[in-house]
UniProtKB/TrEMBL annotation:
PANTHER family named in the record: INTERMEMBRANE PHOSPHOLIPID TRANSPORT SYSTEM BINDING PROTEIN MLAD, INTERMEMBRANE PHOSPHOLIPID TRANSPORT SYSTEM BINDING PROTEIN MLAD-RELATED
Pfam family, one: MlaD
Transmembrane intervals: 12-32
GO BP terms: phospholipid transport
Protein name (Swiss-Prot/TrEMBL): Outer membrane lipid asymmetry maintenance protein MlaD
Keywords noted in UniProt: Membrane, Transmembrane, Transmembrane helix
Mce/MlaD domain location: 38-115
Designated gene of the protein: mlaD
InterPro entries: ABC_MlaD (IPR030970), Mce/MlaD (IPR003399), MlaD_Phospholipid_Transporter (IPR052336)
Amino acid sequence: MLGSAERTELWVGAAVLAVAAGFLLWSTGGGVRQGSDAYELRAAFPNVDGIDKGTDVRVAGVKVGRVSAVTLDPQSFLAEARISLPGTIRMPVDSAALIQSDGLLGGSYIELQPGGAAENLNPGDEIEDVQGAVSLLSLMMKFVDAQAGDKPAAGGQQ
């Protein structure tokens, strides 16, 4: 028979294992279930900085899918992202795909903005309205250049 101290250690160990299994499930995207009814859409971006296989796809801030692949189109030199969505979420043909950021230090994700068309995209269709990743560094450099251009020359009259 186990003593009370051993029984307590057993329960604490089981709780630690359950929490670890929960974190593992959460980190592998266990919250988004995509069964056999999942389908893919395509979106060609000029810049997919921060987007890779497994990146979240969100609608209205809610995670609904994942990026299943990112490839370069050798003809257009655009980065094509394949987006996997569950069959329960059907996007209108005039929907938009934007690459967003979770803040200054957060990761990137693809935000789908549903359009208002009555017709939906079919599996394998391409989302035409896209906005690529915006480089924060290039925006800051443009701001610094603009500020430097506004200053009067040294020794000049004002």
